[in-house]
Specification:
26% of the residues lie in helices and 26% in strands. It has 160 residues and is α+β, with helices and mostly antiparallel strands. It has a 5-stranded mixed beta barrel.
C-alpha cells in the first residue's frame, strides 16, 4: 500500500468515527430534550402522551389535595384559559402554595393527568418562561384575575 492510499484510509476511518460520534451525540441530545408547555397546549392536543416535558402555570386556589397516608399530592395548574390535573409523589418545595407560579417536569398519562417527577417553585410569579408570562397576561398587561388581582392605585415602590 502506498503512502497516499494509507493516508486516505486513515482519513476515511477518521470521517467514519467522527460521523458515528456526531450521530450518537445527536441521538442523546434529542432523547434528553425537554420542551416547555402550558395547560392550554395540553387542552389543544399539542402534547403527546407519555413524552417527558415541562409544564408551567399557577397552582389553582383550592385545588391542592394531600393524601394523609402517603406523599401523594394532587393539584391543578392553570394559565387562565385551561387547567391540568397534576399528581406528584414526594416532598414539595417549601415555597409551593396556591396561586404560586411553578414549573413541573414529567409526562401526561392516558387519562390526561400530568404525572410530575419534579416540582420547582420560587418566591414570586416571575419563575416562568416568557411564553407562560405572555399567556397569563391580558390585554392590559396584568396577570389573569383569579391569581393576581389588579388593585386600583397599586404602588410598585418605584418612581415613574
Amino acid at each position: 500500500m502506498t503512502a497516499r492510499r494509507q493516508r486516505m484510509a486513515w482519513i476515511a476511518l477518521l470521517l467514519v468515527v467522527v460521523g458515528a460520534a456526531a450521530a450518537l451525540a445527536s441521538a442523546a441530545f434529542r432523547e434528553n430534550l425537554m420542551y416547555f408547555h402550558t395547560p392550554t397546549d395540553i387542552a389543544e392536543g399539542e402534547v403527546p402522551s407519555s413524552t417527558n416535558f415541562r409544564l408551567g402555570g399557577l397552582v389553582t386556589t383550592g385545588s391542592v389535595n394531600r393524601d394523609p397516608d402517603s406523599l401523594d399530592v394532587l393539584f391543578k395548574l392553570a394559565d387562565c384559559d385551561h387547567e391540568v390535573a397534576v399528581k406528584y409523589t414526594g416532598i414539595l418545595p417549601d415555597l409551593f402554595r396556591e396561586g404560586q407560579g411553578i414549573v413541573t417536569m414529567g409526562y401526561l398519562d392516558d387519562q390526561g393527568t400530568f404525572q410530575a417527577q419534579q416540582v420547582l417553585a420560587k418566591h414570586d410569579e416571575n419563575y416562568m418562561p416568557p411564553e407562560l408570562a405572555e399567556r397569563l397576561a391580558d390585554e392590559t398587561g396584568h396577570s389573569c384575575e383569579p391569581f393576581k388581582p389588579v388593585r386600583a392605585g397599586y404602588d410598585t415602590g418605584y418612581d415613574s
